[in-house]
């Protein structure tokens, strides 16, 4: 990776600037030089919190383990965290293999999305990337069968999606299970991303699948081009608030991609600008070499604006995963998510508000044969709830 100066999107603090420099520098002499210059100014406690937040400590450990310029306490923390992560990833890989074998025996096609397969594919080893759960995609018509299978393995369902008129199929994209004894979380997807948005059918993804040999029984994962789109959309949806997702983009962008297939997938999903944001950020912050279509995408005006907007999440170590999310952050994130949508996606998103929500059924319970009435009643039920909330707020 290049050791050129980091383009300044905003006023990144010195710990963040050092982290970015280390992530884009492979040469040990450059690493020692960067650490030597910064060591007197860096708050190493802040630096540890930063790399923990961004989930890049195993990748960074692999680069820093031979450097004498890393303070002893920081190196001890990195070593301990690296070892713990290695144990966690081996644990996940073993469970992934068992799930893959048993679902294969049931005739259920499954695509593993991240976790161990991603660590092996992009980093060359399980220990170099963090993961806290297993994410896998199954055909929606096999979802109930997979849920029963997981419950039979001792998993407990964490979230029960409330729905009316089957809107869960396109509003949501996964359901979460956890195993109380193994300490493993599994997210079962029937879509790659929340709706409403266009994305490839499972059969299309299955036809482009690749085998991962990270386990003795090969498991299936996304094709490279599908993987780039999936990682770009996933990272963008979370504001690139963790650098780990950008390091993923850096690694996959260095692979040999099929430009014609990539172009067709981006056109079909109306998401070229989202991929553009991802590779723009990776190029600017991590020194990812870009050429051909990826370079064109990164240079577009919209990609630049969207990349600039991600500064908000990186500058302030924003955490979108712990509730409650502060109100200013929540407002900014909602606006940013809308800006990320293509025009067709924005139209579908706005139209989706006219489709009944489960709150409508709670506000006015109706017999199932009359659920169609929620369509004309929805504006009235929405206004009724808003008026009730406003009245309670004034009363409080």
UniProtKB/TrEMBL annotation:
The keyword Transferase applies. Pfam families: NTP_transf_5 (PF14907). InterPro entries: NTP_transf_5. Keywords: Transferase. One of its GO terms (molecular function) is transferase activity. This is Nucleotidyltransferase family protein. It comes from Paenibacillus antri. The lineage of its organism: Bacteria, Bacillati, Bacillota, Bacilli, Bacillales.
């Amino acid at each position: 990776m290049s050791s050129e100066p980091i383009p300044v999107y905003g006023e990144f603090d010195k710990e963040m600037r050092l982290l970015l420099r280390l992530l884009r520098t492979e040469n040990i002499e450059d690493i020692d030089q960067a650490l030597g210059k910064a060591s007197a100014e860096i708050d190493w406690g802040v630096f540890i919190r930063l790399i923990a937040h961004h989930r890049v400590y195993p990748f960074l450990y692999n680069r820093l383990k031979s450097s004498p310029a890393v303070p002893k306490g920081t190196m001890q923390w990195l070593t301990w965290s690296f070892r713990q992560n290695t144990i966690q990833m081996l644990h996940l890989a073993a469970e992934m293999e068992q799930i893959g074998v048993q679902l294969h025996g049931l005739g259920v096609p499954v695509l593993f999305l991240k976790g161990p397969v991603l660590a092996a594919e992009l980093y060359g080893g399980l220990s170099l990337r963090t993961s806290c759960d297993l994410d896998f995609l199954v055909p929606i018509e096999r979802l109930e069968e997979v849920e029963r299978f997981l419950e039979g393995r001792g998993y407990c369902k964490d979230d029960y999606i409330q729905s009316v008129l089957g809107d869960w199929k396109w509003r949501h994209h996964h359901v979460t299970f956890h195993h109380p004894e193994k300490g493993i979380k599994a997210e079962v997807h029937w879509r790659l991303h929340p709706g409403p948005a266009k994305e490839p059918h499972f059969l299309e993804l299955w036809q482009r699948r690749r085998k991962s040999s990270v386990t003795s029984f090969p498991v299936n994962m996304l094709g490279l081009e599908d993987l780039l789109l999936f990682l770009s959309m996933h990272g963008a949806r979370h504001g690139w608030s963790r650098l780990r997702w950008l390091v993923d983009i850096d690694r996959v962008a260095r692979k040999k991609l099929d430009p014609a297939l990539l172009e067709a997938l981006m056109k079909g999903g109306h998401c070229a600008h989202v991929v553009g944001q991802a590779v723009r950020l990776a190029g600017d912050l991590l020194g990812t070499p870009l050429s051909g279509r990826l370079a064109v995408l990164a240079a577009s005006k919209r990609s630049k604006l969207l990349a600039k907007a991600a500064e908000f999440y990186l500058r302030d170590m924003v955490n979108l995963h712990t509730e409650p999310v502060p109100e200013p952050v929540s407002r900014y994130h909602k606006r940013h998510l809308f800006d990320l949508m293509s025009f067709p996606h924005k139209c579908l998103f706005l139209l989706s508000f006219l489709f009944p929500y489960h709150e409508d059924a709670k506000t006015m319970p109706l017999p199932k044969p009359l659920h169609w009435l929620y369509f004309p009643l929805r504006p009235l039920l929405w206004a009724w709830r808003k008026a009730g909330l406003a009245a309670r707020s004034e009363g409080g």
